[in-house]
Design brief:
0% of the residues lie in helices and 62% in strands. It is built from no helices and eleven strands. Strands 2, 4, 5, 6, 9, 10 and 11 form a seven-stranded mixed beta sheet that branches. The N and C termini lie far apart (41 Å).
Length: 125
């Protein structure tokens, strides 16, 4: 069983900062790409930022220069530092990870796409 648990959402004024964290736990052999997605009311879920196991990052144009994604491979965690927040950043933020499950220390199981439960970020104007 693998799960992703997010923390760090909340209410902040425009121009403020928040840091989201996500921890993966369970029978994990390896984690490839991890990322953050968001879904605002009435809109489709969109990619915010992703990071590969090697540290290569990708950002949505709307957050470039304001958000920073990072990960700790030893702890199976990914974080999103969000600065200069805008009202349009208001959404439910979801952690995502591409995880190969572990059958044993040396035997890799199948790979699945996992999602966290989501954390609300609200930016007031």
């Amino acid at each position: 069983q693998v799960q992703l648990v997010e923390s760090g959402g909340g209410l902040v004024q425009a121009g403020g900062s928040l840091r989201l964290s996500c921890a993966a736990s369970g029978s994990i052999f390896s984690i490839d790409t991890m990322g953050w997605y968001r879904q605002a009311p009435g809109k489709q879920r969109e990619s915010v930022a992703t990071i590969t196991s090697g540290g290569r990052t990708n950002y949505a144009d709307s957050v470039k220069g304001r958000f920073t994604i990072s990960r700790d491979n030893a702890k199976n965690t990914v974080s999103l530092q969000m600065n200069s927040l805008k009202p349009e950043d208001t959404a439910v933020y979801y952690c995502n990870a591409d995880i190969s499950i572990r059958y044993s220390d040396t035997v890799r199981g199948p790979r699945f796409d996992y999602w966290g439960q989501g954390t609300q970020v609200t930016v007031s104007s």
